[in-house]
Amino acid sequence: MSDPTPLLFGLYEQASVGCGGAPSLWTHPADERLGINTLKFWSNQARIAEQANLDLFFFAEVLGFYDVHGGNHDAALKWAVEAPANDPLLHIPALAALTDHLAFGATVSTTYEHPFSHARRFSTLDHLTGGRIGWNIVTSYLTSAARNFGLDRMIRHDDRYERAEEFMDVVYKLWEGSWANDAVVADKARQLYARGERVRPINHEGAHYRVAGPHLAAPSPQRSPLLIQAGWSGRGRQFAAKHAELIFTAKSDPLEIRAGLDDIARQAVANGRAADDVKSLTVLRVVTAPTAIEAQQKYDQLQSNYHLQAQLVSYAGDTGIDIDRYADNEPLTTHTEGMTSYVMRPGGSGKPLTAGEVRQRFARVTRGTDLILVGTPAQVAEKIEEHARISGTTGYMLNPLISPGTLTDFAELIVPELQKRGLYRTAAQSGTLRSRLRRDGADHLPGNAYGARFRFVQD
């Protein structure tokens, strides 16, 4: 029997007081998220993650307040539901300077960003981190964000993906095709930094963007950052199979996860990629202590600081559906431009949840279908091992319930148990983020990647 392969582990974060997953738990006496405006808070988080050899420090992002519930943003601000929303990209250089190995993922929307400025920003981050950067590609879902960028209403779900496809073409052209590998000479004696004939404009003209180029940044360690994606809808899976190198899912049922991952792998192969080109992280919440009784006490204290109303504000923002407008027995509308997977029943029945089912699901900190493990370190590690075996996920994204307590407990209590089982690396990784995830250790997109077709080719 072969030795187990270490799983990937990341930390899910937001530059917000109320982090997605359980936004009201900042009220917990042990939580320190009121310090999110300070570098001290984030430095502490990054140091713990670095010392624990986590693979990824991941930042989610929103571009508007959650104002669907009650028709305004009052409840979102009362409960700090993913608010305030600071810019996570500004955190990364500071945290990268404090760490040597920790990699970072950052969420940027293709709906509101411009591909030219985005490509330069991520090339800069790739340079400054030594290739330790990944981009989480999202299409956005908040109507408030649409208004912030001058739109009267949210762009339709599938239309956002079509816009994203062109966005990807533009950034690939900039990252992969604008500068040749040998463009940079950097020779003082010859007084030559780069050869102009080896740097080209891209002259992109499409339905949404016109970009002349050339790319303003010289090729970075990865050229294209590691590409991350979290869409679980049919269109989202199609997009992931074409572009993503790492996906994450908030599902908990291991069989449902396996079916979804198998579907994405099949589509990836149909796109000419290898099935294992797409790695995965499953969102995980952990409550642990040296004894089962202590772990249950910890959970009970979390529950006493968890508030359903805050979670329903979050749900309304995610889906575009204000639950307070529905009676318990009413099925939810399926006509939403938000996160449709949060509206439908699990298992692919094609039927929506009722409002009562949503209220029941979110009544406890377990959030119904979320993967939350409560127990001793040995019990939690055993459950992780079993879940990974059945689901086929290549790793987990730790979603903190309190900060930094959840991360500290994971690092000090769970990691040693996972290491005993061969499921957690015992040494820090080096090199670019992409090289760490690929069997061949390559820094750049592989030749079978969609983005590789845009590479600089000598005429």
Automatic annotation (TrEMBL):
SUPFAM superfamilies linked to this entry: Bacterial luciferase-like
Superkingdom, taxonomy of origin: Bacteria
Classification via InterPro entries: Diverse_substr_monoxygenases, Luciferase-like_dom, Luciferase-like_sf, NTA_MOA
Entry annotated with the keyword Flavoprotein: yes
Keyword tags: Flavoprotein, FMN, Monooxygenase, Oxidoreductase
GO molecular function, one term: oxidoreductase activity, acting on paired donors, with incorporation or reduction of molecular oxygen
Positions with a binding annotation for FMN: T107, H157, Y161, S233
Luciferase-like domain segment(s): 30-390
Protein family (similarity comment): Belongs to the NtaA/SnaA/DszA monooxygenase family.
Annotated protein name in UniProt: Coenzyme F420-dependent N5,N10-methylene tetrahydromethanopterin reductase and related flavin-dependent oxidoreductases
Native organism taxonomy: Bacteria, Pseudomonadati, Pseudomonadota, Gammaproteobacteria, Pseudomonadales
